[in-house]
Amino acid sequence: MFQEYPEQGKYFTTIFCRYSAIVYTLIFDSVGDFQVTNYLFARTWVDIFYEMRGLILSSEGEPELTSLQNWLIYITSLSINEKQNKLGETIPSEFKNVSIPLLCYLEQALEVLPPMIRFILVMIEKFRWSKNRVAAYLQAEGEMITKEELEKWLNRGHQLIESAIPEDIKIIYLDGEAKAKLKDNEKDYGWDFEFS
Question: Which end of the chain is more exposed for a tag (fewer CB within 10 A), N or C?
């Protein structure tokens, strides 16, 4: 159902709820540190989210492909082995536990944004650059965007991300205030830029 209905988040959320304890235990038993485990747990589920789109399970062949649980254990083991060596330098100091399905759908939404909007959103929301700094950087790169235009781009980015997140994920993970904000942001921003 997850593969057949990608616009609905409930199927991935169900898989996450059912198997998260197994994945978490495997990671914690290998790593033994809560902060590292939590970070690796989140990154592993993002990998699972993308890999599962093309997953084909079969009762014959490779043992890791005979059931979803076997495959999840296999992917978790690969993730631990691949990421454990790089962990010291990659865990952001501000990393906090997050709702994993929401994180997966947010990352997916970011990937489909036009490059300029993605850049603006990431620099302002993730790296906490000021709008003045982003506008100055873009102007230095030959993009003549004013601070006022930048605000429109940022609003459009929020609108595009919100529309890309499945409705059921919004209902499950966003509180009433956030849902009200989503509704307010459906208004027309007077956007006059073209995206390729």
Answer: C
d(Cα 102, Cα 42) in Å, to the nearest integer?
11
How many angstroms separate the Cα of 18 from the Cα of each of 22, 23, 51, 95?
A: 9, 10, 18, 24
Q: Which two tokens stand for residue 17?
A: 């709820």
Q: Say if CB 45 and CB 108 are below 8 A apart.
A: no
* CA gap 195, 154 in Å, rounded: 14
Residue 27 CA to residue 79 CA, distance in Å, equals 9
pLDDT digits (tens, 9 = 90+) for 131-154: 999 999 999 999 988 888 999 999
CA distance linking residue 86 with residue 76, whole number of Å: 16
